[in-house]
Amino acid sequence: MIELWKILLEISILWFVIYQIILFFTGTRALQVIRGIIMLLILFFLIQRLDLERLEWLLTKLFALSVLGLLIVFQPEIRQGLARLGRHHLFTLPLPEEELDNILKEIIKAVDYLARQSIGALIAIEKDVTLKPYVETGVSIDATITSELLQNIFTPGSLLHDGGVIIQQGRIASAGCLFPLNENPDLSRIFGMRHRAAIGLTQETDSVVIVVSEERQDISLVYEGKLFQGIKRDDLLTKVKQLMKPKTRKNEI
C-alpha cells in the first residue's frame, strides 16, 4: 500500500513539473522542442522497463550531448521565462469584474478616439508578472483611469506621448515608459516602434498591450509576443477581458 502511494506521489510530482515547464515556455519557439523532449523521456522510460540496454545507452549519450546545445540555442527563451517567473506577484488579488469592465471601457473609449484622430498610443495592462521595472522608466502618474486623461497623455506635443502607459492595479501607474524592443528582422516593415515595443514587452511579461497606429488608424492587441491587428471597437472589450483571465493554458482570441 505504501509503495502504491509512493508511485502515485512520484507521478503527480512529475506531471506537475512537466506542466510548469510547458507554461514556462508557452509563447516561445522552445515549446515544440520541450514537447519533443517529453516524448523522448517517455520513450526512455519504456526502454528502461523493457531492459533494452543498447538503446538506453544510445539515448543517454544523446541527452548528454543535447543539453548544452539546447541551453545555447534557447538562451533567450530561458532568460525570458526566468524573468517571468521571478517577477510574479505573490499576494495580488484580481480586480472585481465590474471594476475591470469600467476600466476597460475607459481605455477603449480613449483608444477609439485616438485612432479616429490618427494619434498613436501604447497602453500596457499588467497581469500576474509585475511591470514595476518598466514603470520606473517613465513618469509616475498614479491616477484614476479616465478616457480624457489617456487622450491628453498621447496628444502630440505632450511630453509623455512618445512612451507607453502602464495600467497597474486598476490605475494609471506611469506614462512615458520605455519597453524592450523586439528586434526580429522578419517583422513586417509596416509595424513601427510602438508595435515592436508591445511585442518586446509581451515576450518578457504576461501583460496585455493595446497599440493604436497613427498611420493606419487601427487598433491592435499584443499578447505573448503575438500581434492581433485591426481589432474593432465592438470586439475590443471582449477580447481584452478574455486575455486578462488567469492563465491555465494558452489564451486565444
Describe this protein with a few key phrases:
alpha+beta, 14% strand, YojJ-like (1, 9 helices, 253 residues, 7 strands
Question: What features would you describe in this structure?
Answer:
- The protein is α+β, with helices and mostly antiparallel strands and 253 residues long.
- The chain has two domains: 85 residues, no CATH class; 148 residues, DNA integrity scanning protein, DisA, N-terminal domain (YojJ-like (1).
- The chain contains nine helices and seven strands; from the N terminus they run αααααβαβαββαβββα.
- It has a seven-stranded mixed β-sheet with strand order 2-4-3-1-5-6-7, with helices on both faces.
- Helix 5 runs parallel beside helix 7.
- It starts with a helix and ends in a 9-residue tail after the last helix.
Q: Could you outline the blueprint of secondary structure elements for this entry?
A:
Blueprint: H1 2-25, H2 30-49, H3 53-73, H4 75-86, H5 97-116, E1 121-125, H6 132-135, E2 139-144, H7 147-154, E3 164-168, E4 171-177, H8 193-204, E5 208-212, E6 219-223, E7 226-228, H9 233-244
Parallel strand pairs: 1-3
Antiparallel strand pairs: 1-5, 2-4, 3-4, 5-6, 6-7
Helix pairs in contact: 1-2, 5-7, 5-9
